[in-house]
């Protein structure tokens, strides 16, 4: 039997409805959530992502600003701008679009973002909080994956989850969030011998590599839930995932399509983080 293809559109639209209502409540108290997106240089894909993020903010009633800086902007200039946003009460979330030009050290820039406004959850303090299970900012893509699983009724506790990829943005925080949900978690990567033997044991398989169709039917246990984070644009220009969708959907019990599921969910979690940051800021102001 063919797998359930998880309907990302439906999930995103119901979560955005919740975010819209929370944003409206904050706005009614004079605390409209605000997000600033900073982009340095002319990277074409980044320009599209930034436009989509601003559009998504409009859609749920979040105030947004986009700052487009020239390629030759210095690290010191970028950091000075960030310090300004840190001090600006209108702004609850600061996002610096990656990639930055080579002369700017991305880590040094992220370190300057106020952790309370770090809606990407890249700041070492937020990464540390995630490790020790403290509430607060959650990384957008892995958080989106957890929401997809929960809202599709997939039981996580007690299940064997295998994460393919160990990046700081997806693989590692994904493993942390799955652990928090009481899965037994295995992480595999480019140095894992016989990866297939491990992925085949997964009840939940999350793939975040960046190689089109790396995961084939022989990597998947019958009945597994397969979440494809990959976004690859091969020569034909058609966006495709890390999973061979057509083959794997014949074996899995549920599978996410690419495009149309993890991508839009990631932006939605960015909106969630911004509204939650605004809500924490409003509470902190009341208690002062
Ligand atoms: P990344 O930083 O390049 O990390 C890729 C990971 O895959 C690394 O840990 C690497 O292992 C591992 N890997 C590479 N080849 C492998 C192989 N043959 N077998 C097993 N593991 C292998 O990439 P990323 O930032 O995590 O992104 C991964 C993918 O997700 C990309 O396609 C990206 O575009 C996509 N993505 C999508 C969203 C979204 O919103 N949908 C968000 C973020 C990322 P080593 O560590 O050993 O090198």
TrEMBL record:
Concerning InterPro entries, the annotation shows: Aminoacid_DH-like_N_sf, NAD(P)-bd_dom_sf, THF_DH/CycHdrlase, THF_DH/CycHdrlase_cat_dom, THF_DH/CycHdrlase_NAD-bd_dom
Its signal peptide is none
Residue ranges annotated for the Tetrahydrofolate dehydrogenase/cyclohydrolase catalytic domain, each copy included: 6-120
Q: Which residues form the Tetrahydrofolate dehydrogenase/cyclohydrolase NAD(P)-binding domain?
A: 139-280
- Annotated NADP(+) binding sites: 165-167
Q: Does the keyword Transmembrane helix apply?
A: no
Name the keywords, alphabetized. Answer: Amino-acid biosynthesis, Histidine biosynthesis, Hydrolase, Methionine biosynthesis, Multifunctional enzyme, NADP, One-carbon metabolism, Oxidoreductase, Purine biosynthesis
Catalyses:
(6R)-5,10-methylene-5,6,7,8-tetrahydrofolate + NADP(+) = (6R)-5,10-methenyltetrahydrofolate + NADPH; (6R)-5,10-methenyltetrahydrofolate + H2O = (6R)-10-formyltetrahydrofolate + H(+)
Q: In which pathway does it act?
A: One-carbon metabolism; tetrahydrofolate interconversion
Name the domain of life: Bacteria
Q: What is its EC number?
A: 1.5.1.5, 3.5.4.9
Q: Indicate the quaternary assembly.
A: Homodimer.
State the function annotated in the UniProt record.
Answer: Catalyzes the oxidation of 5,10-methylenetetrahydrofolate to 5,10-methenyltetrahydrofolate and then the hydrolysis of 5,10-methenyltetrahydrofolate to 10-formyltetrahydrofolate.
Q: Which family does it belong to?
A: Belongs to the tetrahydrofolate dehydrogenase/cyclohydrolase family.
Q: What is this protein called?
A: Bifunctional protein FolD
Question: What is the scientific name of the source organism?
Answer: Paenibacillus allorhizoplanae
Q: What is the lineage of its organism?
A: Bacteria, Bacillati, Bacillota, Bacilli, Bacillales
């Amino acid at each position: 039997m063919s797998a359930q293809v998880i309907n990302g559109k439906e999930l995103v639209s119901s979560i955005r409805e919740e975010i819209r209502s929370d944003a409206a409540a904050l706005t009614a108290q004079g605390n409209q959530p605000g997000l600033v997106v900073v982009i340095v240089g002319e990277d074409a894909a980044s320009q599209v992502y930034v436009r989509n993020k601003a559009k998504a903010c409009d859609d749920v009633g979040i105030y947004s600003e986009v700052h487009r800086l020239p390629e030759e902007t210095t690290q010191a200039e970028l950091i000075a701008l960030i310090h300004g946003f840190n001090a600006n009460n209108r702004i609850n979330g600061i996002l610096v679009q990656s990639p930055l030009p080579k002369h700017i050290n991305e880590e040094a820039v992220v370190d300057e973002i106020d952790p309370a406004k770090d809606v990407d959850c890249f700041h070492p303090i937020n990464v540390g909080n995630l490790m020790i299970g403290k509430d607060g900012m959650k990384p957008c893509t892995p958080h989106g994956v957890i929401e997809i699983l929960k809202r599709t009724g997939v039981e996580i506790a007690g299940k064997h989850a295998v994460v393919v990829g160990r990046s700081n943005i997806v693989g590692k925080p994904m493993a942390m969030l799955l652990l928090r949900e009481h899965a037994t978690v295995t992480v595999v990567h480019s140095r894992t011998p016989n990866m297939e033997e491990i992925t085949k044991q997964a009840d939940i398989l999350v793939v975040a590599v960046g190689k089109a169709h790396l995961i084939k039917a022989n990597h998947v246990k019958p009945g597994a839930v397969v979440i494809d984070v990959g976004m690859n644009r091969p020569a034909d220009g058609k966006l495709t995932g890390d999973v061979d969708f057509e083959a794997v959907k014949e074996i899995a019990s549920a599978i996410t399509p690419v495009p149309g599921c993890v991508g839009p969910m990631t932006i939605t979690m960015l909106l969630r983080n911004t509204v939650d940051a605004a809500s924490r800021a409003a509470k902190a102001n009341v208690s002062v």
